[in-house]
């Protein structure tokens, strides 16, 4: 089980990450977002930033569909995200190792190649999220 603090710890451990001022969390590398709080929009209600759900950059539609179909207990989307390489992740359902992988992969896809260091480089913190 993960939460916003875990996302923050993992994201800020990656090179050249900036946290944007937000009521939730919003992380960028090279001015490109890679993980942020889900801005839930419901008709007739103001937008609510949900820190229990992370929006992740996934690169392309194929990866998005693979995640949505392969792990529906973790990932979902809404019509507002149709055609965008983004998925929503239910933080309370993801374990530490998987969250680290997802945040790091999102960072790698958005970071300049000079930061990533090549296709095999996987910068990131150790999965030290031992809470249950």
From TrEMBL:
Superkingdom per UniProt: Bacteria
Name of the protein: YjbR protein
InterPro entries the record matches: YjbR/MT2646/Rv2570-like
């Amino acid at each position: 089980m993960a939460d916003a603090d875990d996302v923050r710890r993992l994201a800020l451990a990656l090179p050249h990450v900036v946290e944007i001022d937000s009521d939730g969390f919003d992380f960028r590398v090279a001015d490109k977002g890679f993980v942020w709080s889900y801005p839930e929009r419901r008709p007739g209600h103001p937008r609510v930033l949900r820190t229990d759900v992370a929006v992740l950059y996934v690169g392309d539609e194929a990866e998005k569909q693979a995640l949505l179909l392969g792990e529906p207990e973790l990932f979902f989307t809404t019509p507002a995200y149709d055609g965008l390489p983004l998925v929503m992740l239910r933080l309370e359902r993801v374990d530490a190792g998987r969250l680290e992988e997802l945040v790091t992969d999102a960072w790698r896809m958005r970071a300049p190649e000079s930061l990533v260091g090549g296709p095999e480089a996987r910068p990131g913190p150790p999965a030290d999220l031992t809470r249950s």
